[in-house]
Amino acid sequence: MEISFRDTPVERIKSDLLVIPVREKKLDDPVLRALDRRLKTHLRVRIEKSKFTGAEGTTLLFATLGMLPAGQILLIGVGASEMATDAWRKTGARARKEALAIGAAQIAVWFAPGQDSDNAAAALVEGTMLAGYQFNKYRSNSKAPAELKTLVLFRSGLKKTAAMQKSVDSAQAITPAVFLARDLINEPPSVATARFLGAQAETHCRGRGLTVEVWNKKKIAAMRLAGLLAVNRGSLEEPRFIRIHYKPAGKAKKKVALIGKGITFDSGGLSLKPSKSMETMKLDMAGGAAVIAIMSCLPKLGLDIEVTGYVPTTDNLPGHNAQKPGDVIRYRNGKTIEVLNTDAEGRLILADALALAAEQKPDYMINLATLTGACMTALGTQVGGIFSNNQPLADNLIRSSQEAGEKLWQLPLVKEYKELIKSSVADMKNIGGAHGGAITAALILEEFVGDIPWAHLDIAGPAFAESDNALCPKGGTGFGVRTLSKFLATL
Ligand code: BES
Ligand code: ZN
Ligand code: ZN
């Protein structure tokens, strides 16, 4: 999709589809009046006869019948308050859907943000691109989706600034990464194995400064990644440990470790899940997918920070050699965990990766994991939980998520709950009590990060959309990729 900025009045713009965001009850806006004059008041009459008020989510399509250079006009209601970045993202998505429905290949959007025009432009571009995602490779009757060729942002007097161009460029760099994460999550679990994820990391993480290592079982054993080996024992598939490194051309300002849970299918192991809960358990590598995806676009983002991505990956199956409740895992940093529920496997493989990452003494460690049903119960499917041992880091990530249009809500690391993970035979056990499951899981992870500023994003809810929405169809969402890109840019 080609993106351009134009300083053109509304009556002169030429495009298949002209998109005008309209604030609620602001139907006397000068831009609408200018259009109405050219349309010999037909537009006003049409609005009056319709239910269109500018309320959020309402739209009105109007054919110009040769009275304007643009073919059709789409009014998009954006609600009463001033348009925030999120509204621009949704406007882009709605415009894309409508363009597709009427076979328009070009969109021109009246671009008049009150403030923060750099982020507004990026959000508009991002929304337009994100809404184009489809996963059709397993449908026999799928046609290639119609292409949107151009997106023009225009108004009279619009000046493209360098900052605007830069933020649009990074939006264009980040959406293919979000799509990569979605693809990896949506792929059926017998295809998207640990080996497959390793191969995908090798395929997609290319470019200046990026190196990829994919460790096989032998190397994993040599590195004493005991949690990953334990979880893998019930499977015929070999595990993999993926390490992706990005080194900027110049001197790195900061060193960051990103760690993603890569359970390619979570059956629960011997602590087997009921079949209903298993239906979506191919999503359990969404954290790992987000890490591979963000790493893949770092050369394009060109940030001067050093980033290492770690993805421990295996499926969690109850095969004949599976780990058993009561088994104890001894980690490379000497700590031990008693496994009382093999379905609490994410923390077991993340512990290896966190311990390994901590040895490199990064400035920040951030892990993403579809870790607990409890977090989804607490925050629902739209909001991820964030836990951190460092408040400025948590604040920064939350701010980044807001800019990215992804929602994070902080949950506490309650020291008193450490009692709940005490084991009678080992340093800790892998489950807590009946309540606060998202917190006890986070407390286990915290044991492996030492004193490094760390944040844990529990993305069990938002990793997977249960139904279609404006920015993403049902399935993997790529949650976290956009937040991480914003966050890394702040360092
Ligand atoms: N992968 C699941 C968590 C999950 C649940 C993610 C639903 C997405 C949607 C995780 O491995 C798990 O099974 N956790 C258990 C932990 C429990 C056994 C302590 C859970 O949340 O029930
Ligand atoms: Zn599990
Ligand atoms: Zn899991």
Short description:
With 491 residues, this protein is an alpha/beta fold. The protein is built from 16 helices and 20 strands. The mean pLDDT is 96.
Fold blueprint:
Blueprint: E1 2-7, E2 17-22, H1 30-38, H2 42-49, E3 59-63, E4 72-77, H3 85-102, E5 106-110, H4 117-130, E6 150-155, H5 162-186, H6 194-204, E7 210-215, H7 217-222, H8 226-232, E8 240-246, E9 255-260, E10 262-266, H9 275-278, H10 286-296, H11 298-301, E11 306-316, E12 328-330, E13 336-338, H12 346-359, E14 364-369, H13 373-379, E15 383-388, H14 391-404, E16 407-410, E17 428-429, H15 437-446, E18 454-458, E19 464-465, E20 475-476, H16 481-490
Parallel strand pairs: 1-6, 2-4, 2-5, 5-6, 9-11, 9-14, 10-11, 13-17, 14-18, 15-16
Antiparallel strand pairs: 3-4, 7-8, 8-11, 12-13, 15-18, 19-20
Helix pairs in contact: 3-4, 4-5, 5-10, 6-10, 8-12, 10-16, 12-15, 14-16
Bound molecules: ligand BES and zinc ion (2 copies).
Descriptive notes:
The chain is α/β, with parallel strands linked by helices. It has two domains: 2-156, Leucine Aminopeptidase, subunit E, domain 1, CATH 3.40.220.10; 173-490, Aminopeptidase (3-Layer(aba) Sandwich), CATH 3.40.630.10. 35% of the residues lie in helices and 21% in strands. It is built from 16 helices and 20 strands. Strands 7, 8, 9, 10, 11, 14, 15, 16 and 18 form a nine-stranded mixed sheet that branches. Strands 1-6-5-2-4-3 form a six-stranded mixed sheet, with helices on both faces. A three-stranded mixed sheet has the order 12-13-17, covered by helices on one side. The model has no long low-confidence stretch (mean pLDDT 96). The chain binds ligand BES and zinc ion (2 copies).
